[in-house]
Amino acid sequence: MFHRILIANRGEIACRIIRACQQLGIQTIAVHSEADAHALHVALADVAVPIGPSPAAQSYLDTAKVLQAAREHGANAIHPGYGFLSENAAFAQAVRDAGMAWIGPDPQTITAMGDKARARQLAVDSGVPVLPGSDRLRPGEPAAWAAAAEQVGYPLLVKAVGGGGGIGMKRVDSAEALQATIESAQALAQKAFSQPEVYLERYVARARHIEIQVFGYGNGEAVHLFERECSVQRRFQKIIEETPAPHLPEGVRAAMAEAAVALARHQRYAGAGTVEFIVDAQTHAFFFLEMNTRIQVEHAVTEAVTGWDLVQAQIQLAAGALAPVAQAHIRSSGAAIECRLYAENPLKHFMPSPGPLTRLRLPAASDRLRVDCGVREGDAVTPFYDPMIAKLIAHGPDRAAAIGTLQEALRMLEIEGIRHNAVFLQAVLEHPDFVAGTVDTGFVDRERAALLQAMAEPKAVIP
């Protein structure tokens, strides 16, 4: 087992990895920017190393500084968490070249799945269904764009080849809007991923976003840990995730899991990964969306129902200390649901709301509620990074019980100093469509007025 692991991340996921390392008896190295000098992950780690100014490009994304910190402080391995360098194949290879273990899949797999157009083809090669789509589209070729769009059909989505997190993704309903939308998406893709190419994909009007958690052993064998429903989104970014997915036919559930495992096996995938699908809400036909070659923000939902510790399993696999588990031995118990608590203003299109957390009282963790947090009272939510405050994960014998626990937890929150989305989350959980389990990815946009109206209504406060 490793002696010391450097965590190339910050916030909630860095704290989560530190906890897993502590349980395995492994020392941790935290890296931090100037803005995070007094952050929670810095306080929890055994060693803390400053690596630069507050902007991520000058600190957390500076691969040379991260590697230097790892070498100088005796790291055996690096865990990238999610975001930042987690899907940077060049960094993963540099870690290995420096004689340290990379806690993640092979760099070649990261490269293959990071290119969304190439990933589509690999899905086809694995027998996984994909939506009608185009080849990659280069800048400055509007005639080729128009021809590709006519072949795919409207409405469609413009998607960045190197994309993720909804960045560079835009809907187009007509030929008149195509050129301007592609040019805008390409500019965003260039800025975010240094790769301006995009591709087109058929848009499903009433779609569900369902993903399968997979775990590969790196030898062509892989298992799945069931699905997560992620259809409650704003701007293509997830807000609430749950498992099992409500009202999903068992045959479809099984077929999706089988397709995800087939792709992981085809890639000889190593570690935790997520295969994401778009599901037609009316026909239940499913189509490959992308594969994320890292731990997901919502991994705790899966952990709640399976009893797995996915982060520990990642570390153990990288250390050669994980015994494979057969699919037949993986069970799911009850239902779990997670909401992401953000410093943002739902009344202003979910704009980030940085500032000091002058008061932060989170509900106590229990056998029904898990609280994953990366900040403390007195800390500041800065404008430099993702404005997540915490994740609340409820687990119960059924979906209704899990929802009830999560509603209670949200009512108990006490947060001052910044705007946040807790009341919006309550409004979602109480909405009749959500309670019925019939939401799709258009739910938040379609019900925006009703949700904002519900936010204005008085909420009960538990003493």
Report on the structure:
This protein has 463 residues and is an alpha+beta fold. Helix content is 34%, strand content 25%. The chain is built from 16 helices and 22 strands. It has helices at 11-24, 40-44, 63-72, 89-97, 107-114, 116-125, 142-152, 178-193, 250-266, 299-306, 310-318, 399-412, 422-430, 432-436, 443-446, 448-456, and strands spanning 4-7, 27-32, 47-50, 77-79, 101-102, 156-160, 170-172, 198-202, 207-217, 222-234, 237-243, 270-280, 286-292, 335-342, 344-345, 351-352, 355-356, 359-361, 369-373, 380-381, 388-396, 414-416. The chain has an eight-stranded antiparallel β-sheet with strand order 13-12-9-10-11-14-21-19, with helices on both faces. The chain has a five-stranded parallel β-sheet with strand order 3-2-1-4-5, with helices on both faces. It has a three-stranded antiparallel β-sheet with strand order 7-6-8. Strand 10 (222-234) and strand 11 (237-243) form a beta hairpin. Helix 4 (89-97) runs antiparallel to helix 5 and helix 12 (399-412) packs antiparallel against helix 13 (422-430). The mean pLDDT is 95.
